[in-house]
Amino acid sequence: GVCETGEYDAVLCCVGVQYLEEPEAVFAEIGRILKPNGLVIVSFTNRFFYQKALTGWIERGMNERARLVSDYFRAAGGFENSEVKGDGVNAIIQLLSVGGIGGDPFVAVIARRNTDP
């Protein structure tokens, strides 16, 4: 790969996960380049380019998208349990944003690389 194994303390994927065509492979690579106990934050909002996002992403609500990202961590292996943060999983916030009344719901799924290589 381009990066050395265990080279980074943290990786941030900001509003891009919905466009990954091979997310499990990308998450496995993130795990490879992270130091043990390294932090990963995958964040997303309710807005995205409909024409570019994957069908599986488009068809899900914010809760299901957060679960999907957590599933990517599990599928890649080597990560501790992920944690979901943000207001985007709140049903009322989601409905208000769709109606144009509220803001843009935000979710971050956070995980750490296992300490064992």
Search tags:
117 residues; alpha+beta; four-stranded mixed beta sheet; 4 strands
Approximate helicity band: 25-40%
Secondary-structure-based class equals alpha+beta
Give the overall shape. globular
Main-sheet strand order equals 1-2-4-3
- Please tell me the overall pLDDT: 87
- Percentage beta strand: 15-25%
Regions with little confidence, pLDDT below 50 for 5+ residues: none
Radius of gyration: 15 Å
Number of helices: 4
What are the secondary-structure elements, in order, as H or E?
Answer: EHEHHEHE
For the largest beta-sheet, the strand count, sense and barrel status come to: 4 strands, mixed
Ends distance: 17 Å
Structure summary, number of beta strands? 4
Topology record:
Elements: E1 8-14, H1 23-33, E2 34-45, H2 55-58, H3 62-76, E3 83-85, H4 91-98, E4 106-112
Parallel strand pairs: 1-2
Antiparallel strand pairs: 2-4, 3-4
Helix pairs in contact: 1-3
Would you give an account of this structure?
This protein is α+β, with helices and mostly antiparallel strands. It has helices at residues 23-33, 55-58, 62-76, 91-98, and strands at 8-14, 34-45, 83-85, 106-112. It has a four-stranded mixed beta sheet. Helix 1 (23-33) packs across helix 3 (62-76).
Summarize it:
The chain is of the alpha+beta class and 117 residues long. The protein has helices at residues 23-33, 55-58, 62-76, 91-98; strands at residues 8-14, 34-45, 83-85, 106-112.
